[in-house]
Amino acid sequence: MSAAIPPGPPSAATRWRIGWPRRVFSQVLLMQLAIAAGVTVLATGLFLRPLGSQLDDQAMRRALSIAQTTASEPRLVTALQHTRPSREGPVQAAAERIRRATGAEYIVIMDRRGVRWSHTSPDEIGKHVSTSPEQALAGHEVMQIDNGTLGRSARGKVPLRDRDGRIVGAVSVGIAYETVRGRLLGALPGMLAYAGGALAVGALAAYLVSRRLQRRTHDLAFSDISALLAEREAMLHGIREGVVALDAHGRIRLMNDEAQRLLDLRAEDTGQPLEAVLPPGRTTDVLAGRVTGADLLTVSGGRVLVANRMPTDDGGAVATLRDRTELERLGRELDGTRGLIDALRAQDHEHANRMHTLLGLLELELHEEAVEFITEAVGVHRATAEQVTERVHDPLLAALLVGKATVATERGVSLRIAEGTLLPDRLVDPPGLVTIVGNLIDNALDAAVGSAEPRVEVELCADDRTVLLRVSDTGPGIPADRRDLVFTEGWSTKKPPAHGQRGIGLALVRRLAERQGGSARVADRDGGGAEFTVVLPEALTQEPAGKPAGAPLTATGEPR
Question: Which Gene3D superfamilies match (predicted)?
Answer without folding.
Answer: Histidine kinase-like ATPase, C-terminal domain, PAS domain
